[in-house]
Design brief:
Belongs to the ABC transporter superfamily. By secondary structure, this protein is an alpha/beta fold. It has 9 helices and 10 strands. The protein has one domain: P-loop containing nucleotide triphosphate hydrolases (Rossmann fold), CATH 3.40.50.300. The strands form 2 sheets. The protein has a 6-stranded mixed sheet with strand order 6-7-8-3-9-10, sandwiched between helices. It has a 4-stranded antiparallel sheet with strand order 2-1-4-5. A hairpin with a 2-residue loop joins strand 1 and strand 2. Bound molecules: adenosine-5'-triphosphate.
């Protein structure tokens, strides 16, 4: 069976600048792919193209077999996307916004109420359900974004820095949630936190200047005698980082 996420030769140019350059990878059910790279490497641009929010200049992305450009509705049905930043509609309450999202996803009546309640429970938002989103702290806003991505229980999750702005307890909760969901889904997360990759990801891709420079399980990278941080630095700074002494 085809992988749930298939990216082939994806490229994005902004004028004469190539932000994402010929990127290809697949993600199977059960995999959590950590998408790493320095600021400006092209992670968010790749994720936006994968989520159908930005048209590629070349190449294709498919979610559960549906091309995100040619079959956008079919692709989005199978996708939960957490973009960078906070959810829109800041004047809506948490519950109102999730209800709105659920109706767009086609849920009504009891099914809609159950979905909203379940999404709030998973992201621990019940205590602020009647609060307007604009009055929430950064971490709570982030969790509202995560709740809307999970609401329809999609097989594919694309999460752009899901733990950004969360306190250590919430970071832990969100990582646990990702781990629990992992067997049933294909998940891509971008992060700047290298320990997060070791903690939740079965595979890591490092991207630098728009190109994939590593695609391997974090354990394999570390087994070669280098910490993930050393691998990251040596590949993205363009010079060798000092090797760790073998144990
Ligand atoms: N709409 C746009 N127009 C022009 N350039 C853009 C646009 N969006 C992104 N870029 C550029 O593309 C490059 C990749 O940006 P992107 O946001 O994908 O990086 P990133 O890896 O997600 O970075 P960060 O870790 O800082 O979030 C950057 O140089 C950025 O300035």
């Amino acid at each position: 069976m085809a992988a749930l996420i298939e990216i082939e030769r994806l490229t994005k140019r902004f004028g004469g600048f190539t932000a994402v350059d010929d990127v290809s990878f697949t993600v199977d059910r059960g995999e959590v792919l950590g998408f790493l790279g320095p600021n400006g490497a092209g992670k968010s641009t790749t994720m936006r193209m994968l989520a159908g929010f930005m048209p590629p200049s070349a190449g294709t992305a498919r979610i559960c077999g549906a091309d995100v450009v040619a079959q956008p509705v079919a692709a989005k049905r199978h996708l939960g996307f957490l973009p960078e930043g906070a959810p829109t509609y800041p004047e809506m309450t948490v519950e109102g916004f999730l209800g709105f999202t659920g109706r767009i996803r086609g849920f009504r009546g009891g099914a809609l109420r159950d979905r909203v309640a379940q999404a709030m429970r998973l992201t621990q938002l019940e205590g602020v359900r009647l609060q307007p989103i604009e009055t929430l702290s950064k971490g709570f806003k982030r969790r509202v974004g995560l709740a809307q991505a999970l609401l329809h229980d999609p097989p594919v999750l694309v999460l752009d820095e899901p733990t950004d702005g969360l306190d250590p307890n919430q970071k832990h909760e969100v990582r646990e949630l990702i781990r629990r969901m992992a067997p049933e889904k294909a998940i891509v997360i971008s992060t700047h936190i290298l320990e997060e990759v070791a903690a939740v990801c079965s595979r890591a891709i490092i991207i630098a200047r728009g190109r994939v420079v590593v695609d391997a399980p974090p354990s394999v990278l570390e087994r070669e005698g280098q910490s993930l941080e050393e691998v990251f630095r040596s590949l993205t700074l363009g010079e060798a980082a000092p090797r760790r002494e073998a144990a």
